[in-house]
Amino acid sequence: MRIRLNCHMQSRSLPNKFKYLAIETVFFALLFLIFPVLSNYEYNFIELHKERWLQEETVLAIYYGLAELLTSVVYYIIVRQFLFSKRFARFILFTVIYLVAYHFYRSGLYYATAHMTFLPTHLRSVSQHWYDAHSRINFSIVYMSTRLICVVSLAYFIRSMKQDELLNTLREQHLLTELNYLKAQLHPHFFFNTINNIYALALKGSAETAGMVARLGDMMRYILDEAEQDSVSLCREISFLNDYMALERIRHEGHEIIFDVQGVHNEVEIAPLLLLPFIENAFKHGLSEDTNRGFVKIIICVTSTELILDVANSKPVAKQNSRTGIGIRNVQKRLDLLYASRYQLEVRDEQQEYSVTLILKRYD
């Protein structure tokens, strides 16, 4: 198993339509089958102590539970069709029609069940009793209204879930778009700085120019082939940084440049080119031409819970413009997008040294 240090999209185990269908199925089963059965068990067990009550009440609850489930599904469709589309007049009209139709449906079901001789005696006798006692339409409306409230609540719950999911999808798409934009800005910025370095050596007639061009080719290949991925091996990223350090050592021969790597292994992954802007910034400001005996010290350390980058560089004698470069601004935005609360960034600006410590939290 690889330990990722980048934030990625979570795949869903089931298509959304099956997830919603499962929620609806469980809801209707509980409301019209399970709850009526349990309610009848409790009532008959405590109050009546009838013989064979288990079988009789189970048949009764399931029979009428299925009958009411069908009518409630019809109303569920009415809610989704008219209420959510804000066609309120039609919704009210269909609700009234539904309640009136439900009364006659319920009365007809009681009457028909009571006269079906092949049905169990208990079911027929209860149906006849209900037909005689609940013949008024106001009882049907009051009785069914409580169920309709539950059905409307389910519809709103499912709608809320869909809206939240859509909002999350739009946010993910926005994040991907912004990350791709930041990467697109980073690559030209890096190549511009590196080509400037090679150009400076070429003007001096340095024999190292050809080697720098070859290393730049390897780095370009890495950026084109791997840096567009969501995450890369930290070992591969450090290999890329080594090539970059080699270019800077040639350019700044005679300066103190330290690059120390501790605890890195192949199982650790990181967002590509995330560390480079901090290192670039150290060379840009720490080894500028007006810095006496400048230095750059870089330490990358991996522990069981964190990845730590510590970068320190000397400050120039003459104070330079301290405006943050595009690379640093972009990497701060990438950290916010990819790691959110799972990173710490500390910047220390002292009299003779500028240092940055970045801590990324590891997770499986």
UniProtKB/TrEMBL annotation:
Keywords: Membrane, Transmembrane, Transmembrane helix. Gene3D superfamilies: Histidine kinase-like ATPase, C-terminal domain (3.30.565.10). GO terms for molecular function: phosphorelay sensor kinase activity. Residues 178-253 form the Signal transduction histidine kinase internal region domain. The chain crosses the membrane at residues 21-41, 61-79, 88-105, 137-158. GO terms for cellular component: membrane. InterPro entries: Bact_2-comp_sensor_kinase, HATPase_C_sf, Sig_transdc_His_kin_internal. The keyword Glycoprotein does not apply. PANTHER family: SENSOR HISTIDINE KINASE YPDA. This is Signal transduction histidine kinase internal region domain-containing protein. It comes from Mucilaginibacter conchicola.
